[in-house]
Structure formats: structure tokens, C-alpha cells
Amino acid sequence: MKTTNTIKRIAGLAGAALLALTPFQGRAQETNTLANAQLTQPQPNPIQTSIKGEWFNKYLFRNLVYSESPISQGTAALTYKDVSLIGIGIYDNKVRDWIEADAILDITHNFGPITASAGYAKITVPNTEGNELDSQEFYLGLTGNCPGSPTAKWVRDFGTGKGDYFELSASHQIDITKRL
Q1: Residue 40 vs residues 36, 37, 44: alpha-carbon distances, Å
Q2: How far is CA 125 from the centre of its chain?
Q3: pLDDT tens by residue, the chain, 180 residues
């Protein structure tokens, strides 16, 4: 109960911070003369925000089943240049309670042909006795900026998992809105 209330407070504060920091994308008017007044594009804001909601029929992560019932996952991110603060909350729709809350600090920089990332993740698994499943991770990753986006990532779990693991992946995004 105490952990659930803490998660709700953190989620509320994160949501309020994201709303307060979301850039206002208005237009400015040049005031040289009224006859030549032109609309100009706003300057890009270095602070970016994103909020995403997802639904899954079960919670499977790195080939481990964490919940057999449907879950909802919310993700909020606040990014300034190459640095992102990301919060993830996972809610079990059958049990009707939070089953995980993660806080991630990520630094990602594009070096032309490759993008490098490094970060820290604090994983909280509430509603377990003594939160014995909570963990912490540090990671380093490289992604090729080419078709297929090949990615190699090393993760060091220095919390509950206590170990290293590697991820190799490839992905490609297709914008279907251009075809509709």
C-alpha cells in the first residue's frame, strides 16, 4: 500500500512536470511595419516531451513472463538535447494494481554513422515483500544509422539480477501514414 501511494505521487509529479514543461508552439509576428507583418516559425524548444500508452495481453520481458493477465504500460519522457529522463509504469488490469515502476536516465548522442547511448535504470517492483525484486541497471549501446538499425547493447544488473547480459537487435520503421 505504501509503495503504491509512492508510485501514484511520483506519477502525478512527473505528469505535472511534463505538462508544465511542454513547449508552447505558437507563432510570433514580426513588427517592423504593419504592412509587412509576416508570420514566422517558432524557434525549436530544446526541451522535448512525450507520453505514450500501450496495452499488452501479458507482460513478457526478456523471455520472462511477469504477468499472465493483460497489462497497461504508460511511458513519459522529458528530453533536453541528448539527455532523457524516462518514467515507465506497468499496471496489471486483472489484479488492478501497479506491478512495476521504472525510472531511467539516458544519454544518447548521434555520431554520424553510429548512435551511442548510456544510461541508468532503477526498477521498482511494488507489492512484493520487502520489494525484493527491485533492481538497478547500467547500460551501454551502439546503433548503426543505416537500414535495419543494427543494435548491440550491454546491460549490467547490479541489483537483484546481479549479472551482465547482451542484446542484439535490428529494426526498421515504416511510416504508413504516407501510404494512406
Answers
A1: 12, 9, 12
A2: 17
A3: 455 555 555 555 455 444 444 444 333 333 444 444 455 566 678 899 999 999 999 888 766 777 889 999 999 999 999 999 999 999 999 989 998 999 999 999 999 999 999 999 999 888 766 667 788 999 999 999 999 999 999 999 988 778 899 999 999 888 888 766
Distance CA 14, CA 76 (A): 8
Phi-psi category of residue 55: left, alpha or beta, with phi > 0 → left and psi -120 to 50 → alpha = beta
What's the predicted TM-score (pTM) here? 0.70
Nearest to 128 by CA among 166, 156, 89, 101: 101
CA atoms of 177 and 180, how far apart (whole Å): 5
